Each structure stands twice: as structure tokens, then as C-alpha cells.
């Protein structure tokens, strides 16, 4: 099931995306419709039966998380390309809720950086409040999966050591286009293109720490709430983007998240 969050006529809601499963992005979705959900999708829900063409709505970030917990250096080749060792334990950091934008929203180049990079990632959307989750219960706390782009001010990351500004600035966490709930994330193709040129190509099977291990590790320390997001790391091939570039993250079984980089006016 694909679940999207949308806005129409000033109203924000969730809907189940119905139609051609081969359509991977809103731009390809002429025959897709949204069956509007009563309330929200966190827990048992029903749909209203009121259906709206996807082209008539604005797709929003699929969730507004209280926090985004991201994992660094979770692909060995990516760690190596930046001159880092593979960590024995997951390296976690936060991106604030204000960093989140949706499909088609602009990535505004931060004024304090001259080297901004794309990082294509599989994002896990949490479906229920959870803490100290044992491995066998991990599937129970996951609502589904979406595409993410961990936009990073690389020069700032290197200069400041702490990653709060480098990875937490406004617009640095594009998510979308929707949540896929019926998916095995163990071995999915993940790519990133810039202006149609392939930059990153990997598979989730290359992760050092599995999604299950990451959720167990994180919930040892903190409570995750419905709608919180886990970014699982990026494969090799990260690189710079500049104003005017179109960046597209595609993940097998989910779809494509596209955003354009713009300069700050």
C-alpha cells in the first residue's frame, strides 16, 4: 500500500494511492488517485471512498516527524570515499523537523556553505510509539518506507565536526513521494541522479548495520513516536549540487523523489 500526505483547497490529509503500480513519481501519475483516509494512518484506519486525482493535489512530506534519526557511514564504500573507517557501532545524529521538505519542494542552498552534497537514502517511517524494541518486534513498529535525501553541507561538516548545522539546516531532508507499507527492505536498488546523470547506485543489502539492528540500537536510548523517521545511510557516490540542479532519489519498490536546488534570494 502506498500512503501519501497531501494538501488540497487548504486542507491537509492522508490518502491511499491507487492505480498504476509502475508509476514511480507524481510526474508519471496521470492515472493515479488518492482514496482519502479518515484521520491518520498510524494504527488501524479506513478510507472515505472519496477519491481525488493525484494531479489535483499537492504532495507534502509523507510525515511530519518529531525527529529524524539518521545514521552515518552505514555503507562501507561511502565511508571509504570520504576517508573514514567503518564504524563498529552505528553513528547516529539528528535532523530537526524543520529540515523536512516534500517532493517537488526546493532545496535552498544555505548561505553558510559552498559545498553541498546529495545523499540518497532509504527512510524508515515509524508507525507506533516504541522504546527498547527487541529484534523480533521491529516489524511491528514500522509503518513503511520512503525515499530520502540527506542533503549535507560537506565543508561545514568537516570544519565543525559536530553535524548539527551541516545536516540540519532548513530543507536538508527531502522525503517522499509516499510511504510504501508492503515492502521487504533487505535488498533494494537505490540510486541518485543529478540532471539525469547517475551519481549513486547501490543496494540496501550493502548496509553495515541492518534496519532491525538500527531500531534496536536507537530505542535503547530514546522513544520513537509515530511518524518519526530513521535514515539508514547512503551508498557511495555522493557529490556536489549547485543551484539549478535537479536531484532525483529512486528506490526500488517505492518510487522517485525529485527536488530542485535553488539559491537563497
Automatic annotation (TrEMBL):
Domain of life according to the entry: Bacteria
Family matches, as InterPro entries: Fumarylacetoacetase-like_C (IPR011234), Fumarylacetoacetase_C_sf (IPR036663), Rv2993c-like_N (IPR018833)
Any one biological process term the GO annotation gives: carboxylic acid metabolic process
Limits of the Rv2993c-like N-terminal domain: 1-62
Protein keywords: Isomerase, Metal-binding
Gene Ontology MF terms in the entry: acetylpyruvate hydrolase activity; isomerase activity; metal ion binding
Pfam families for the chain: FAA_hydrolase, Rv2993c-like_N
Keyword match Metal-binding: yes
Classification via PANTHER family: ACYLPYRUVASE, ACYLPYRUVASE FAHD1, MITOCHONDRIAL
Protein name: 2-hydroxyhepta-2,4-diene-1,7-dioate isomerase
Amino acid at each position: 500500500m502506498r500512503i501519501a500526505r497531501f494538501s488540497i483547497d487548504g486542507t491537509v490529509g492522508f490518502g491511499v494511492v491507487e492505480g498504476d503500480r509502475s508509476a514511480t513519481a507524481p510526474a508519471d501519475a496521470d492515472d493515479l488517485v488518492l482514496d482519502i483516509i479518515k484521520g491518520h494512518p498510524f494504527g488501524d484506519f479506513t478510507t472515505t471512498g472519496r477519491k481525488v486525482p493525484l494531479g489535483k493535489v499537492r504532495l507534502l512530506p509523507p510525515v511530519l516527524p518529531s525527529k529524524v534519526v539518521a545514521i552515518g557511514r552505514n555503507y562501507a564504500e561511502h565511508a571509504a570515499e570520504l576517508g573514514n573507517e567503518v564504524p563498529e557501532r552505528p553513528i547516529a545524529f539528528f535532523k530537526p523537523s524543520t529540515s523536512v521538505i516534500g517532493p517537488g519542494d526546493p532545496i535552498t542552498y544555505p548561505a553558510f556553505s559552498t559545498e553541498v552534497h546529495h545523499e540518497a537514502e532509504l527512510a524508515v517511517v515509524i508507525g507506533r510509539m516504541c522504546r527498547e524494541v527487541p529484534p523480533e518486534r521491529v516489524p511491528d513498529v514500522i509503518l513503511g518506507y520512503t525515499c530520502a535525501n540527506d542533503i549535507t553541507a560537506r565543508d561545514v561538516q568537516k570544519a565543525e565536526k559536530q553535524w548539527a548545522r551541516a545536516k540540519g539546516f532548513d530543507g536538508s531532508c527531502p522525503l517522499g513521494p509516499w510511504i510504501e507499507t508492503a515492502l521487504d527492505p533487505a535488498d533494494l536498488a537505490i540510486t541518485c541522479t543529478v540532471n539525469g546523470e547517475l551519481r549513486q547506485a547501490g543496494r540496501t543489502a550493502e548496509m553495515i548495520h541492518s534496519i532491525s539492528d538500527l531500531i534496536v540500537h536507537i530505542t535503547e536510548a530514546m522513544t520513537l513516536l509515530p511518524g518519526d523517521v530513521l535514515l539508514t545511510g547512503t551508498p557511495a557516490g555522493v557529490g556536489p549540487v549547485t543551484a539549478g540542479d535537479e536531484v532525483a532519489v529512486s528506490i526500488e519498490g517505492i518510487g522517485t523523489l525529485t527536488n530542485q536546488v535553488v539559491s537563497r534570494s
